[in-house]
């Protein structure tokens, strides 16, 4: 019999974090049948060997190179068999029964194709950008207006309301098997950033809702600002550029490029 849940974790040189994450899964998935698949992107810190030694029940896929987040997750999903597939970052800590409750939520809401819980930072503050709107020109302008003029984010990250959103974070994203079968996996043209927004857009286009459920929580140790990481900034803007070309067309893409020109010059886009 196939398990209820397949957890896919893509890892690259996060050995200690990965071990901590894996240790939280049994309590997080209490009363569920589940499988864990770790896709290691050619780590050099002994991550893969640690998984083999300490977690023999975990399915391990060893890549010879870093193939990125999207392709790594697709490899894991292709090797999975659960009714639900969970994309989970290696720098997360699963709270007791969090995954059990996510699966129960999906069982009760058949119109939902994907859901994400609240992501908590180590200080128990909600992580920003756990969900959001499609990054259209209008949305990005509104987000900037809120930040510069109103001095507050466009979304309430402290909300307790379960709500339909445009996209949720791939740090902890639970999707139905039917979603994977119908629309396929993540877009492998995206190496990092916006692969979750792209996937969620395609999920909604296929007729399902995407939901944010802040009444269920996990800890996400990452999710910090890009300001001090030029390489990450370059990846962010390249992925956004690709997203525009794919979903909004050439004119919107040109407008985006002109609007982002100062940032591109600063980070040597």
Overview of this structure, please?
This protein is α/β, with parallel strands linked by helices. The chain has two domains: 5-224, Spore Coat Polysaccharide Biosynthesis Protein SpsA, Chain A (Alpha-Beta Complex), CATH 3.90.550.10; 225-269, no CATH class. Helix content is 41%, strand content 22%. The chain has helices at residues 15-28, 47-54, 68-78, 98-108, 137-150, 177-183, 195-205, 230-247, 250-259, 261-266, and strands at 5-11, 34-41, 59-63, 84-88, 92-94, 112-120, 131-132, 163-164, 167-168, 172-176, 209-220. α1 (15-28) packs parallel to α2 and α8 (230-247) packs antiparallel against α9. The longest helix has 18 residues, at 230-247. The chain is globular, with a radius of gyration of 18 Å. Residues 224-228 have low confidence and may be disordered.
- Specify the biggest β-sheet: 9 strands, mixed
CATH topology group of the largest domain: Spore Coat Polysaccharide Biosynthesis Protein SpsA, Chain A
Instruction: Bin the strand percentage.
Output: 15-25%
User: Low-confidence segments, ≥5 residues, pLDDT <50?
Assistant: 224-228
**Structural domain tally:** 2
Number of helices: 10
Category by helix and strand content? alpha/beta
Silhouette: globular
Strand segment tally: 11
């Amino acid at each position: 019999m196939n398990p209820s849940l397949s957890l896919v974790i893509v890892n690259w040189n996060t050995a200690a974090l990965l071990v901590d994450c894996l240790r939280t899964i049994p309590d997080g998935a209490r009363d569920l049948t589940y499988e864990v698949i770790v896709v290691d992107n050619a780590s050099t810190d002994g991550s893969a060997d640690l998984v083999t030694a300490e977690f023999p029940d975990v399915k391990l896929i060893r890549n010879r190179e870093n193939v990125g987040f999207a392709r790594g997750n697709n490899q894991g999903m292709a090797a999975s068999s659960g009714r639900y597939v969970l994309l989970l970052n290696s720098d997360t800590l699963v709270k007791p029964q969090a995954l059990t409750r996510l699966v129960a939520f999906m069982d009760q809401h058949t119109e939902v194709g994907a859901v994400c819980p609240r992501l908590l930072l180590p200080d128990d503050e909600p992580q920003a950008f756990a969900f959001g709107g499609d990054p259209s020109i209008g949305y990005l302008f509104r987000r900037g207006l809120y930040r510069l003029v109103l001095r507050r984010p466009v979304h309430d990250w402290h909300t307790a309301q379960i709500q339909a959103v445009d996209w949720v974070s791939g740090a902890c994203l639970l999707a139905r098997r039917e979603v994977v079968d119908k629309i396929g996996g993540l877009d492998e043209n995206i190496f990092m950033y916006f692969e979750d927004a792209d996937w969620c857009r395609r999920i909604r286009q296929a007729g399902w809702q995407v939901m944010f459920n802040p009444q269920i929580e996990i800890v996400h140790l990452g999710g910090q600002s890009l300001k001090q990481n030029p390489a990450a900034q370059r990846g962010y803007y390249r992925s956004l550029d690709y997203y525009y070309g794919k979903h909004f067309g050439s004119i919107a893409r040109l407008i985006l490029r002109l609007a982002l020109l100062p940032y591109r010059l600063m980070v040597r886009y």
